[in-house]
Write a structure and sequence with these properties.
The complex is a heterodimer of chains A (154) and B (159). Chain A is of the alpha+beta class and 154 residues long. Chain A has a 3-stranded mixed β-sheet, with helices on both faces. In chain A, α4 links the parallel β2 and β3. In chain A, α5 runs antiparallel to α6. In chain A, 29% of the residues are buried. Chain B has a domain of 85 residues. Chain B contains 8 helices and no strands. In chain B, α2 packs across α3 and α6 runs antiparallel to α7. The chains are: A alpha+beta (154), B mainly alpha (159). The interface between A and B is medium-sized, with 16 and 18 residues.
Protein backbone atom coordinates (compact mmCIF):
# COMPACT_ATOMS: atom_id res chain seq x y z
CA UNK A 1 0.00 0.00 0.00
CA UNK A 2 2.75 2.38 1.04
CA UNK A 3 4.67 1.54 -2.15
CA UNK A 4 1.61 2.27 -4.31
CA UNK A 5 0.99 5.54 -2.49
CA UNK A 6 4.62 6.54 -3.08
CA UNK A 7 4.45 5.70 -6.79
CA UNK A 8 1.15 7.59 -7.11
CA UNK A 9 2.63 10.67 -5.41
CA UNK A 10 5.73 10.65 -7.66
CA UNK A 11 3.51 10.28 -10.74
CA UNK A 12 1.35 13.20 -9.61
CA UNK A 13 4.47 15.30 -9.01
CA UNK A 14 5.91 14.46 -12.44
CA UNK A 15 2.59 15.19 -14.15
CA UNK A 16 2.31 18.50 -12.36
CA UNK A 17 5.84 19.65 -13.04
CA UNK A 18 6.20 18.39 -16.60
CA UNK A 19 5.60 20.89 -19.36
CA UNK A 20 4.14 19.24 -22.41
CA UNK A 21 5.46 20.04 -25.86
CA UNK A 22 2.01 21.30 -26.90
CA UNK A 23 2.01 23.77 -24.09
CA UNK A 24 5.45 25.06 -25.06
CA UNK A 25 4.42 25.45 -28.67
CA UNK A 26 1.21 27.15 -27.63
CA UNK A 27 3.21 29.60 -25.55
CA UNK A 28 5.56 30.32 -28.45
CA UNK A 29 2.61 31.07 -30.72
CA UNK A 30 0.96 33.25 -28.14
CA UNK A 31 0.29 36.14 -30.42
CA UNK A 32 -0.98 39.63 -29.90
CA UNK A 33 -4.49 38.70 -31.10
CA UNK A 34 -5.04 36.30 -28.21
CA UNK A 35 -4.47 38.97 -25.59
CA UNK A 36 -7.63 40.61 -24.39
CA UNK A 37 -7.64 44.37 -24.39
CA UNK A 38 -10.04 46.99 -25.63
CA UNK A 39 -9.22 50.32 -27.16
CA UNK A 40 -10.93 53.26 -25.52
CA UNK A 41 -12.19 55.85 -28.01
CA UNK A 42 -10.21 59.06 -28.02
CA UNK A 43 -13.17 61.44 -27.96
CA UNK A 44 -13.38 61.20 -24.18
CA UNK A 45 -12.72 64.15 -21.88
CA UNK A 46 -9.14 63.00 -21.34
CA UNK A 47 -7.45 61.68 -24.45
CA UNK A 48 -6.74 57.97 -23.92
CA UNK A 49 -4.14 57.76 -26.70
CA UNK A 50 -1.27 56.93 -24.30
CA UNK A 51 -3.15 54.16 -22.53
CA UNK A 52 -4.25 52.65 -25.85
CA UNK A 53 -0.65 52.71 -27.06
CA UNK A 54 0.56 51.23 -23.76
CA UNK A 55 -1.98 48.40 -24.06
CA UNK A 56 -0.68 47.54 -27.50
CA UNK A 57 2.92 47.52 -26.23
CA UNK A 58 2.12 45.32 -23.21
CA UNK A 59 0.14 42.95 -25.44
CA UNK A 60 3.40 42.14 -27.29
CA UNK A 61 4.81 40.56 -24.10
CA UNK A 62 4.13 36.84 -24.48
CA UNK A 63 3.43 36.38 -20.75
CA UNK A 64 0.40 38.70 -20.67
CA UNK A 65 -3.18 37.53 -21.08
CA UNK A 66 -5.22 40.71 -20.56
CA UNK A 67 -4.38 44.39 -20.25
CA UNK A 68 -6.33 47.34 -18.86
CA UNK A 69 -5.15 50.94 -18.76
CA UNK A 70 -6.28 54.51 -18.30
CA UNK A 71 -4.45 57.81 -18.24
CA UNK A 72 -4.70 61.42 -17.18
CA UNK A 73 -2.43 64.15 -18.56
CA UNK A 74 0.43 63.17 -16.21
CA UNK A 75 -0.34 59.66 -15.02
CA UNK A 76 -0.64 56.33 -16.78
CA UNK A 77 -2.08 53.44 -14.80
CA UNK A 78 -1.84 49.98 -16.31
CA UNK A 79 -2.87 46.60 -14.95
CA UNK A 80 -2.30 43.28 -16.65
CA UNK A 81 -2.67 39.58 -16.04
CA UNK A 82 -0.02 36.95 -16.76
CA UNK A 83 -0.29 33.27 -17.63
CA UNK A 84 -0.47 30.92 -14.65
CA UNK A 85 3.05 29.51 -14.88
CA UNK A 86 4.55 32.97 -15.30
CA UNK A 87 3.16 34.11 -11.94
CA UNK A 88 6.46 32.93 -10.43
CA UNK A 89 8.22 35.75 -12.32
CA UNK A 90 5.53 38.34 -11.52
CA UNK A 91 7.88 40.97 -10.07
CA UNK A 92 10.35 40.63 -12.94
CA UNK A 93 7.65 40.91 -15.60
CA UNK A 94 6.19 43.93 -13.82
CA UNK A 95 9.64 45.56 -13.74
CA UNK A 96 10.23 44.89 -17.45
CA UNK A 97 6.81 46.25 -18.43
CA UNK A 98 7.34 49.40 -16.37
CA UNK A 99 10.81 49.90 -17.86
CA UNK A 100 9.46 49.53 -21.39
CA UNK A 101 6.61 51.95 -20.78
CA UNK A 102 8.91 54.51 -19.14
CA UNK A 103 11.10 54.39 -22.25
CA UNK A 104 8.05 54.84 -24.47
CA UNK A 105 6.38 57.61 -22.45
CA UNK A 106 9.17 59.54 -20.73
CA UNK A 107 6.92 62.53 -20.01
CA UNK A 108 4.45 60.50 -17.93
CA UNK A 109 4.43 59.03 -14.44
CA UNK A 110 3.72 55.33 -14.87
CA UNK A 111 2.18 52.90 -12.43
CA UNK A 112 2.05 49.19 -13.29
CA UNK A 113 0.21 46.49 -11.38
CA UNK A 114 -0.74 42.84 -11.71
CA UNK A 115 -3.24 42.94 -8.86
CA UNK A 116 -6.77 41.66 -9.39
CA UNK A 117 -8.27 44.75 -7.71
CA UNK A 118 -6.50 47.14 -10.13
CA UNK A 119 -7.64 45.07 -13.09
CA UNK A 120 -11.25 45.18 -11.88
CA UNK A 121 -11.16 48.92 -11.19
CA UNK A 122 -9.49 49.78 -14.51
CA UNK A 123 -11.91 47.53 -16.36
CA UNK A 124 -14.83 49.40 -14.76
CA UNK A 125 -13.23 52.75 -15.61
CA UNK A 126 -12.64 51.69 -19.21
CA UNK A 127 -16.29 50.64 -19.54
CA UNK A 128 -17.44 53.94 -18.04
CA UNK A 129 -15.18 55.84 -20.43
CA UNK A 130 -16.71 53.88 -23.32
CA UNK A 131 -20.34 54.43 -22.36
CA UNK A 132 -20.49 57.71 -20.45
CA UNK A 133 -18.69 60.92 -21.09
CA UNK A 134 -17.15 61.19 -17.64
CA UNK A 135 -16.02 64.65 -16.53
CA UNK A 136 -12.26 65.18 -16.42
CA UNK A 137 -12.22 65.58 -12.64
CA UNK A 138 -13.97 62.26 -12.07
CA UNK A 139 -11.51 60.42 -14.31
CA UNK A 140 -8.55 62.01 -12.55
CA UNK A 141 -10.04 61.25 -9.13
CA UNK A 142 -10.68 57.60 -10.01
CA UNK A 143 -7.21 57.08 -11.46
CA UNK A 144 -5.63 58.66 -8.37
CA UNK A 145 -7.74 56.36 -6.21
CA UNK A 146 -6.55 53.29 -8.15
CA UNK A 147 -2.92 54.44 -7.87
CA UNK A 148 -3.22 54.92 -4.10
CA UNK A 149 -4.81 51.45 -3.82
CA UNK A 150 -1.93 49.90 -5.76
CA UNK A 151 0.56 51.48 -3.34
CA UNK A 152 -1.26 50.25 -0.26
CA UNK A 153 0.66 47.82 1.91
CA UNK A 154 -0.49 45.31 4.50
CA UNK B 1 27.83 -5.04 32.22
CA UNK B 2 28.52 -2.69 29.34
CA UNK B 3 25.77 -1.02 27.31
CA UNK B 4 26.94 -2.64 24.06
CA UNK B 5 26.25 -6.20 25.17
CA UNK B 6 22.66 -5.30 26.06
CA UNK B 7 20.05 -6.15 23.42
CA UNK B 8 18.12 -3.07 22.19
CA UNK B 9 14.82 -4.40 23.49
CA UNK B 10 13.97 -7.15 25.98
CA UNK B 11 12.72 -10.33 24.26
CA UNK B 12 9.19 -9.87 25.61
CA UNK B 13 9.05 -6.41 24.08
CA UNK B 14 10.21 -7.69 20.68
CA UNK B 15 7.66 -10.46 20.64
CA UNK B 16 4.96 -8.01 21.72
CA UNK B 17 5.94 -5.75 18.82
CA UNK B 18 5.69 -8.66 16.39
CA UNK B 19 2.25 -9.63 17.71
CA UNK B 20 1.14 -6.02 17.50
CA UNK B 21 2.35 -5.69 13.92
CA UNK B 22 0.54 -8.88 12.93
CA UNK B 23 -2.76 -7.66 14.33
CA UNK B 24 -2.48 -4.00 13.44
CA UNK B 25 -5.00 -2.69 10.92
CA UNK B 26 -3.05 -1.24 7.99
CA UNK B 27 -3.50 2.50 7.57
CA UNK B 28 -5.17 3.50 4.30
CA UNK B 29 -2.51 6.11 3.43
CA UNK B 30 -3.65 6.76 -0.13
CA UNK B 31 -7.29 7.14 0.90
CA UNK B 32 -6.27 9.48 3.74
CA UNK B 33 -4.24 11.57 1.30
CA UNK B 34 -7.17 11.86 -1.11
CA UNK B 35 -9.57 12.80 1.72
CA UNK B 36 -7.12 15.41 3.05
CA UNK B 37 -6.61 16.79 -0.46
CA UNK B 38 -10.33 17.10 -1.14
CA UNK B 39 -11.38 18.62 2.19
CA UNK B 40 -8.26 20.82 2.51
CA UNK B 41 -8.76 21.93 -1.09
CA UNK B 42 -12.42 22.76 -0.43
CA UNK B 43 -11.41 24.92 2.56
CA UNK B 44 -8.88 26.72 0.33
CA UNK B 45 -11.53 27.27 -2.37
CA UNK B 46 -13.84 28.79 0.25
CA UNK B 47 -10.92 31.01 1.36
CA UNK B 48 -10.30 32.08 -2.24
CA UNK B 49 -13.99 32.94 -2.67
CA UNK B 50 -13.94 35.06 0.50
CA UNK B 51 -10.77 36.78 -0.71
CA UNK B 52 -12.38 37.54 -4.10
CA UNK B 53 -15.47 38.84 -2.30
CA UNK B 54 -13.35 41.33 -0.35
CA UNK B 55 -11.46 42.36 -3.49
CA UNK B 56 -14.63 42.83 -5.55
CA UNK B 57 -16.90 44.57 -3.04
CA UNK B 58 -14.47 46.41 -0.76
CA UNK B 59 -11.29 48.44 -1.21
CA UNK B 60 -8.93 45.52 -0.65
CA UNK B 61 -6.14 44.50 -3.01
CA UNK B 62 -4.86 40.94 -3.46
CA UNK B 63 -2.20 41.75 -0.89
CA UNK B 64 -4.40 43.39 1.74
CA UNK B 65 -7.35 41.00 1.35
CA UNK B 66 -5.37 38.26 3.14
CA UNK B 67 -5.97 39.58 6.65
CA UNK B 68 -9.79 39.90 6.55
CA UNK B 69 -9.96 36.55 4.71
CA UNK B 70 -8.07 34.79 7.53
CA UNK B 71 -10.21 36.54 10.15
CA UNK B 72 -13.40 35.43 8.38
CA UNK B 73 -12.18 31.84 8.04
CA UNK B 74 -11.30 31.72 11.75
CA UNK B 75 -14.73 33.18 12.60
CA UNK B 76 -16.45 30.48 10.52
CA UNK B 77 -14.25 27.83 12.21
CA UNK B 78 -15.30 29.19 15.59
CA UNK B 79 -18.95 28.63 14.72
CA UNK B 80 -18.35 25.21 13.17
CA UNK B 81 -16.25 24.11 16.19
CA UNK B 82 -18.88 25.41 18.59
CA UNK B 83 -21.60 23.44 16.83
CA UNK B 84 -19.43 20.32 17.13
CA UNK B 85 -19.02 19.75 13.40
CA UNK B 86 -15.33 20.52 12.96
CA UNK B 87 -14.14 17.50 14.98
CA UNK B 88 -16.22 15.20 12.79
CA UNK B 89 -14.72 16.80 9.69
CA UNK B 90 -11.27 16.49 11.28
CA UNK B 91 -11.85 12.79 11.97
CA UNK B 92 -12.76 12.25 8.35
CA UNK B 93 -10.07 14.26 6.58
CA UNK B 94 -7.16 14.44 9.07
CA UNK B 95 -4.45 16.83 7.90
CA UNK B 96 -6.83 18.40 5.38
CA UNK B 97 -8.51 20.28 8.22
CA UNK B 98 -5.41 20.69 10.41
CA UNK B 99 -3.01 22.32 7.94
CA UNK B 100 -5.07 25.34 6.75
CA UNK B 101 -5.55 28.31 9.11
CA UNK B 102 -8.89 26.82 10.17
CA UNK B 103 -6.95 24.06 11.96
CA UNK B 104 -5.13 26.69 13.99
CA UNK B 105 -8.44 28.37 14.81
CA UNK B 106 -9.95 25.05 15.83
CA UNK B 107 -6.98 24.31 18.14
CA UNK B 108 -7.51 27.61 19.98
CA UNK B 109 -11.31 27.49 20.12
CA UNK B 110 -11.70 23.82 21.08
CA UNK B 111 -9.28 24.18 24.00
CA UNK B 112 -11.13 27.33 25.14
CA UNK B 113 -14.41 25.39 25.09
CA UNK B 114 -12.84 22.37 26.80
CA UNK B 115 -11.42 24.33 29.74
CA UNK B 116 -14.43 26.61 30.20
CA UNK B 117 -15.47 24.75 33.38
CA UNK B 118 -12.14 25.63 35.08
CA UNK B 119 -12.92 29.36 34.95
CA UNK B 120 -12.07 32.19 32.61
CA UNK B 121 -8.56 32.96 33.90
CA UNK B 122 -7.05 29.61 34.90
CA UNK B 123 -9.26 27.62 32.54
CA UNK B 124 -9.86 29.43 29.25
CA UNK B 125 -7.04 31.99 29.53
CA UNK B 126 -4.33 29.57 30.62
CA UNK B 127 -5.21 26.71 28.29
CA UNK B 128 -6.40 28.50 25.15
CA UNK B 129 -2.95 28.70 23.57
CA UNK B 130 -1.55 25.47 24.97
CA UNK B 131 -1.62 23.83 21.54
CA UNK B 132 -1.56 26.97 19.41
CA UNK B 133 1.23 28.58 21.46
CA UNK B 134 4.08 26.55 19.87
CA UNK B 135 2.73 27.45 16.42
CA UNK B 136 2.93 31.15 17.28
CA UNK B 137 6.37 30.84 18.95
CA UNK B 138 8.01 28.93 16.12
CA UNK B 139 6.13 30.91 13.48
CA UNK B 140 7.44 34.20 14.86
CA UNK B 141 10.91 32.76 15.39
CA UNK B 142 11.20 31.38 11.84
CA UNK B 143 9.80 34.65 10.42
CA UNK B 144 12.49 36.51 12.37
CA UNK B 145 15.20 34.21 11.00
CA UNK B 146 13.98 34.57 7.40
CA UNK B 147 13.77 38.37 7.79
CA UNK B 148 17.31 38.37 9.16
CA UNK B 149 18.60 36.32 6.19
CA UNK B 150 16.72 38.60 3.75
CA UNK B 151 18.18 41.73 5.37
CA UNK B 152 21.72 40.33 5.19
CA UNK B 153 21.23 39.30 1.54
CA UNK B 154 19.82 42.75 0.72
CA UNK B 155 22.77 44.44 2.42
CA UNK B 156 25.16 42.26 0.42
CA UNK B 157 23.28 43.18 -2.74
CA UNK B 158 22.36 39.60 -3.66
CA UNK B 159 18.62 40.35 -3.88
Amino acid sequence: MRYHAGVFMILLLLMGCGKSQDHLEQQMHHTEEQIKFSTVKNETTIDQYESNQAKEIVATFHETTEVFAANTKDWLMLAFNVTHMNRFQLKNIEKNVKKRLTEEFPHMKIEVSTDEKMRLELKKLEEDLHTNNLPQQTVEKRIKQIISLSREET
Amino acid sequence: MSMKSKPPFPPTSTSYKQTEQAHETPRPILLNCIKAFLIGGTICVIGQCISLFYISFFDFTEETAGNPTIATLIFITMLVTGFGMYDKLGQFSGAGTAVPVTGFGNAVISSAIEHRTEGFILGVGANMFKLAGPVIVYGVFSAFLIALIKTVLQLLGVI
